[in-house]
Amino acid sequence: MRLENKVILITGSATGIGKAIAKRCVAEGARVVVHGLEVDLAAAVVAELGAANAVSHIEDLTSEGCPQRLVDLAIKTFGRLDAIVNNAAMVTQGNIHNTDAAYFMKMISVNTLAPFLLIQAALEELSKTRGSVLNIGSVNAWSGEPDLLPYSISKGALMTMTRNLGDTLMRENGVRVNQINPGWVLTENEARRKREHGLREDWYADLPKMYAPSGRILWPEEIAAAAVYWLADESGPVSGQVMDLEQHPFMGRNPPKDSSTIPSK
Predict the structure, then answer these.
(1) Distance of alpha carbon 246 from alpha carbon 67, whole angstroms
(2) Any idea what the CATH number is for the domain that residue 97 is in?
(3) Which residues are the active-site residues?
(4) pLDDT tens digit sequence for 237-246
C-alpha cells in the first residue's frame, strides 16, 4: 500500500474532494484526521473509515488556535504526523462590483491564511517524518472568472505560497510542498450550487463539450487518486510544483461562437 503507516491530516474532509482523499488515503494504508464544520457528516466519515483509522475535529479553521489543535489531535491519537492536505475552502461568488473588504478578507482568511497557519503549526512534526504538504487549489488560480474574483485571487496566492514554501521547506526541513489545481468537479456542494442557480436536478448529465469535452466533469475520487502520488514516497524529492487537473487546456482556450453557457464552476 502506497501510504502504509502514514498519518495524514485533511481539512474539509467531511464532504467532497476532502472526503474522497480521506477514503483513498485509508485504502492506501494511512490513518487520517478528518476535519469539517458539520458534526454529523464528519462522524459518518469516521464511521465509514473505522475508529482505528480516523478521528475527527469540528472547528472553523480561522478560529484562533485551530491549526495547532488539529496537529495536537493527530499526535495524541496516532503518535505522528506525515502529511497535511489543505483542502478546506470557501467557494462563493463575488466580482469587482459587489465584493467589499470584509468579504474579501474572509475569503483570504479561509483559503490562504488558514493553510499557511496549518503548515506553520505542523512544521515541527512534519520535519521529524520528512513529511509533505499538499495544497488543493483551483484552475481559477490562473485568472478565474468574473464572478469568482476573490476566490480566484485567494487560490492564486495559495499557488504562490506553494512555490515559495516548496523550495524553502525542502531546503530547511526536508518537507515537500506541492499543489493540485482541480478543474470542474462534481462534489455535493457543486451539485447544490448549480441547483440553486436554477439548473435541473441532473444538470451534469448533458454538458456543452466546451466545458466537458469527455461528456462529463471530474469525480472527487479522480482528484483523490492524483493526491495519493504527492502524499506517497514515490514522488521522491519533488517539491514546489503545481499540477492542473482538468480535461482541457483552459488557459488561452477560445470557445466556439455557438457554444452554450452555464453558470460559473
Answers:
(1) 30
(2) 3.40.50.720
(3) 151
(4) 999 999 999 9
